Amino acid sequence: MSNNNKEIRSDFDEYLVPCYAPMQVVPEKALGSKVWDYDGKEYIDFAGGIAVSCLGHCHPVMLDALEKQAKKVWHLSNVMTNKPAIDLAKRLTELTFADKVFFANSGAEANEAALKLARRVAIEKYSESKNEIISFKKGFHGRTFFTVTVGGQPVYSDGFGPKPGAITHLPYNDIEAFEKHINENTCAVMIEPIQGEGGIVPIEKPFLHRLAALCKKHDAVLIFDEVQTGVGRTGTLYAYESLDIIPDILTTAKSLGGGFPIAAMLTNNELAEHMKVGTHGSTYGGNPLASAVGLAVLNEVTSGSLMEDIITKEKLFKKLLNNMNQTLNVFDEIRGKGLLLGASLNQQWKGRARDILTEASRHGLLILIAGPDVIRFTPSLLVSEQEIKEGLKKLELSIKKLTL
């Protein structure tokens, strides 16, 4: 049996469908914001499973919830009433604008449900011709054929034959383009409050507020994709709270389970009534194990001063990255909010984000990229200030190594 990084990585190439190209690092165990690979090397984790591990690795409240639920019931089909799912749904409605919740297993599935609901509402309330979905260039909403088409990155959706129709991609933060295009046949607008895969680009408030007003004018459902921004990531439970906008539908996943697969679509009573019995479903959606862990995560994130701490850590990250840049001159912008941050590479470093990621791993730091030109940081919300300082020192050493 393989028991070191090199052998296990070779087995990956041998046995898995080649749609991923992971690093040579193969984690064996993890705790908090630290990871250890099969060769015994220690890493500081600023990747967080791509904004998933919001409480870090192996947090005791998650372990406790999972163990307790595992001794009761693991799975219930949706022909039965599922108490853990009800408990989590109730808590989500207490903490957000929503009245109703639909559970799924991934962000893509939650977005699929949101898009289907929006189309259903338009057809039942208005007409078959009210079917256009507006989304935004460089957006990302998942990998199902519907959601990958709604996402504004053709590199992910091309090459699979005819795509779902009536989908329009407009420039992000461009209100003139949006005003010119939205019309009576627009049924929904799907948008990320911070474009994640698109480069960590925050939404501009004036753009969003005008967009929301135009959605109301044209009876178009406003869908917030908060798969990456949700569950405290930006310093509020969901990003819409700091934007003074209430969406019609919100999708959440990633951090909701802290690493256990779960997702949800949140909406109001008026829209929810269009999802009648049999119109949509999921075998595993709201799984009791996932729901129990999700509730534990949600309660932990909303307790104490964690939200305020996230903003303090954001300021530290940005300060240290800007200080680093004074010496290295590698970034042209540090952007994002809370602990969803991006460092955009300047002209001299364009296209080298992956090089930095790889070199950082050699120095014991795990980071992400958001396209070829942006370094992305999505650590645990509980990452310590000392770990931030140590991790960014490793990043500085990595970049210096690449300049030699």
From TrEMBL:
Its cofactor is pyridoxal 5'-phosphate. Keywords: Amino-acid biosynthesis, Aminotransferase, Arginine biosynthesis, Cytoplasm, Pyridoxal phosphate, Transferase. Its EC number is 2.6.1.11. CDD domains: OAT_like (cd00610). One of its GO terms (molecular function) is N2-acetyl-L-ornithine:2-oxoglutarate 5-aminotransferase activity. One of its GO terms (cellular component) is cytoplasm. N(2)-acetyl-L-ornithine binds at R143, S282. This is Acetylornithine aminotransferase. It comes from Paraphotobacterium marinum.
